[in-house]
Amino acid sequence: xxxxxxxxxxxxxxxxxxxxxxxxxxxxxxxxxxxxxxxxxxxxxxxxxxxxxxxxxxxxxxxxxxxxxxxxxxxxxxxxxxxxxxxxxxxxxxxxxxxxxxxxxxxxxxxxxxxxxxxxxxxxxxxxxxxxxxxxxxxxxxxxxxxxxxxxxxxxxxxxxxxxxxxxxxxxxxxxxxxxxxxxxxxxxxxxxxxxxxxxxxxxxxxxxxxxxxxxxxxxxxxxxxxxxxxxxxxxxxxxxxxxxxxxxxxxxxxxxxxxxxxxxxxxxxxxxxxxxxxxxxxxxxxxxxxxxxxxxxxxxxxxxxxxxxxxxxxxxxxxxxxxxxxxxxxxxxxxxxxxxxxxxxxxxxxxxxxxxxxxxxxxxxxxxxxxxxxxxxxxxxxxxxxxxxxxxxxxxxxxxxxxxxxxxxxxxxxxxxxxxxxxxxxxxxxxxxxxxxxxxxxxxxxxxxxxxxxxxxxxxxxxxxxxxxxxxxxxxxxxxxxxxxxxxxxxxxxxxxxxxxxxxxxxxxxxxxxxxxxxxx
Length: 522
Description:
The protein is an alpha/beta fold. It is built from 14 helices and 27 strands. The strands form seven sheets. It has a five-stranded mixed beta sheet with strand order 11-12-13-14-15. Helix 1 (about 10-20) crosses helix 2 and helix 2 (about 35-50) crosses helix 3 (about 70-80). The longest helix has 16 residues, at about 35-50. Residues about 505-520 have low confidence and may be disordered.
């Protein structure tokens, strides 16, 4: 890639691949799409979108079925100089309407049924809603517009959950997106002979890597639904049948798949991302891939900001090592990392502080939220470089490797003791009967916080909750031992594949058992 490519429109870079290898396989979805076919479909969509006369950077909500047309439509929006706003079809319509409103969308694209649900979910008139199929301009050479410029033009707005419950939209420009994809191409050693499994919803940031990295590099995408994660045998068959080389999943999904598969297809690259991966699970990934990576990054820094190569026999103890996660590594190309203490000054190696990410991947900010943007995106140093405050607590070792120790906003205090829920999960992982676990807090009747843990037992094995609690009391301070437990067949997950800790809090649909009432009352 040329240096100028970093300022290009992503759709133009993928169009170049279509010109170079028009007959190569680009996407395997509802059918096999060649690069030439994908490019032609993208131009057909772009011609229809251009006729609408939307101003540059108009935000376009997208809620469509998962097929080759979806990929072509996203590229057409970028080609026209607009920004796409993904909506997960499985989300409640009310959330979709909030996203459309918060993003200030000038257009909504979706199937008739999805559009009807969105219309009915709001009290005010929605923006124009169109079935993408009606936009397609047919003919051998549709009158598509010239590709818009990239660089600092908005590419997409992706909404994440906020601590207040209101989704907040992260604005990502072409230059941030392209820089990430070029760095990922080199880091993952992705070439034209490679194939990437794309299983994440487009409403999750990892989807931009799954969909666009292979197309940027001239490889191919195996586009499948995330529901396939519930059928490990079928997923294994898909990986083998389609010769997939690169698989990215969250630790929760990796754990389920590795437990279910007798023989996992060997990969070129296995990636864990999205949430902390325990050292024990991290040691298993190198056994199924030539290269295993733990990649870290919030949506606000364009998917990934740091990376670490996992080893089959890592160090499991020692100064500075985290018991809740394998290292998150060192900054990727054109990214920088600072570790700051509570006073805002850099801390020494080995000391804990908040991680700040700077460099080419830092987002423009939050959509229509200047207050929140000013709070989380700050300028530091004599050159006033821009950084994102992650809220993650880390330590940097003498080799420059960053180790993750939890969040500064999901920790809680019980009897004055600061508690990181994942430390509880690490203790549970040492219990032979426990296959998976997740800990979080719940609100007691008196308004204080208590600890609750959900466990998934190994097949054919279990313990009484009182026994499990007694085992934890041998390795954890009393204040860190959960007062409530629940046994589940599988841990609840968000649409992005992360453990849904909020779903572990008491709900009428779960069977709960309280143990140690005295501890609970505290």
